[in-house]
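Problem 12. The chain below contains 70 residues. Write out its predicted structure in token notation.
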Amino acid sequence: AITGLSPSSVTAGSSTFVLKVNGNRFVSGSVVNFGGAPVATTFVNNSQLTAQIPASAVANAGSAPVTVAN
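Solution.
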């Protein structure tokens, strides 16, 4: 389960960035989905993942759901 995101927001039109996803029960095969699409994910430990969010995913203003699939 996700307990926090860092950063919690970015400005529309931002460049590619790393999203830290904090939570629990993550495994080495966990994949972060940003706005419904899987993104490159790095397993840090069972309570943190990092995800590369492409600039194209934040080109327009709005919100994007973040989920994790184990």
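Discussion. The chain has a mean pLDDT of 97. Students who got a different answer should revisit the alignment rule from Section 12.3.
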